[in-house]
Amino acid sequence: MKGLEEIPMPHPLSRKIKAAAFAGAASLALSACATVPGANVAPGSPITAEEAAQGAQYHPQFVAEFGGEMTGPYASYVQQVGANVAVQSGLANSRDAFDVTLLNSSVNNAFAVPGGYVYATRQLVNLMNNEAELAAVLGHEVGHVAARHSARRQAAAQRNQILGVGGAILSSVLLGGNNPLGQQLSQLSLQGSQLATLSYSRNQELEADQLGIQYLNRAGYDPRAMATLLQSLAAQNQLDAQLQGRDNATIPEWASTHPDPASRVQSAAQLAGNATGVTNRETFLSRIDGMVYGDDPAQGVIEGRQFIHPELRLSFTAPQGFYMVNGTRAVSINGDAGRAQLTTGPYNNDLNSYLRSVFQSIGGDQQQLAPANVQRTTINGLPAAYGTATVNNGQQQVDVTVFAYEFSPNQAFHFQAITPAGQAGTFNSLFNSMRRITASEAGSVIPRRIDIITAARSDTVASLARRMAYTDGQEARFRVLNGLGSGGQIVPGQQYKIVVRAN
After folding, report:
1. DSSP letter string, 205-258
2. What is the pTM of this model?
3. Residue pLDDT, tens place only, 261-293
């Protein structure tokens, strides 16, 4: 993916690819450092000049990687709460020393990096039910920084995942650990949420929980919020798995870099003890009222098995039994029989050349990857080209397929897919479903938003859940969104979150 930084890229998916190129460069730069900033700094010590410089260097790339920085009242509120809890860490004496960013991402994620940079996605903020939970998440992330966890894991030569080094799921299943091809194609099943933070150990997670609870106490928040937030995350992970037909409830959400929140709920509750503090529930709910929930139409939306992008004017449908994830850089299609991804790259009106360049990029410098032949066709009126290469990953043969479509003389999109050898046809329905959408279809895409309502005396969980803008899992979604367990009931006069369609 070399050279993408210099090419004008007007579309959101193009910006995703540009972010990926930045990410790769940043990863190489970090891994090449002779010393790791913060590795020899005592835990809890103030931010060093070296750490601040590193954070400032990579901050724009993190923002680009995760959908962009949100501005306005939502962002100001998150910044205010984040700085208030971060200053309790002793990393700096001034709230102004912390840069707290609200990211426009539909993935549940939060992270922090050396130098006072703290991040949370709007989706994770929407999952919370009070200000103390927001402070708990941000405090947990600051705890990782205060304890210099990332620096120590880098210095110990653990797998560096800052800004996205290839990884886990797909490569381990089909391609084998450090295979360059596996590192490239692992992005097919990984979200941005897994690419921005190091893979912490269980002890480091517990230490960050403990530090976060200390910061909550010092800031006057209810320290029990750490446990309730972790409980909501565990419930959301489980719900996502059920809705997507997955058995593994821990991938690919926030728990992938912050393992198993369910197992940490009890520990967090014990650490909090009987201490109390403010939660600022009503203030929090009023501050998130109207925030976009789920996919932002500007980045494309997933509706069941259909992906539709109103700005790029395209749509496709995932095969039966597969689920999709709309990441910041691309859309992934995941299932037991294979993985695929829709993305884009620089295009010069030559589909054959474009296709071969994609294969070359997937293979990387260490593996020459090329299709056995390139075939041309037309899909729903779109000029298209495709090819498949069979690769031995050291354990088995796998097929890598690229299917590209020309949308204009200077714009192409492509699927890149991986399946066990001989099973490339698994994605034929996907490849054949790509189409342009009409202006009317594009205009009909209306975002989902959080709507704060006050429960009436006659309201029940069922009645409020019916107002959720979904055709499936309405009650389960409502319960998880509001932190209501299976037996939780509505309290008249109390405020709750629902998800509605609204421009």
Report:
1. HHHHHHHHHHHHHHHTB-TTHHHHHHHHHHHHHHHHHHHHT-S-TTSSSGGGTS
2. 0.82
3. 777 898 999 999 999 999 999 999 999 999 999
